[in-house]
Amino acid sequence: MIVIEQPTADPTYATSQKEITVGGRVENATSVSVTNVTTHSPSNVSANFQGNAGTWISDPIPLAPGDNEIEVSAKGDTGVARDTLVVRRQ
User: What does the alpha-carbon distance between residue 22 and residue 89 come to, in Å, rounded to a whole number?
Assistant: First the structure.
């Protein structure tokens, strides 16, 4: 399980910034990855795992004007879990 909680837990978010940092919670994972699907830009992620649960936060992710689909993936023994956030750069 992986969820995006920062900057919002909602499925969409609007900003005028050129970059965004996202973060959240993860369970039963050995690695986390973040990608701006719209621009095909991967981002480095810092994860702090404590047993089977933990938190993660990305480095700044460049945003294109308009809608940007940010996808986070967590890989673990049971497969891959994903969550997405659509960020509209105004």
Answer: 14
Cβ atoms within 10 Å of 13's Cβ, excluding its own: 19
**Cβ distance 70 to 85 under 8 Å?**
yes
Q: In sequence order, what are the residues at sequence separation of 6 or more whose Cβ sits closer than 8 angstroms to the Cβ of residue 11?
A: 84, 85, 86
The CATH number linked to 71 is 2.60.40.10
Distance CA 14, CA 36 (A): 15
Say what the pTM is: 0.89
Enclosing domain of residue 8: 2-89
pLDDT digits (tens, 9 = 90+) for 69-82: 999 999 988 899 99
Amino acid symbol at 77: D
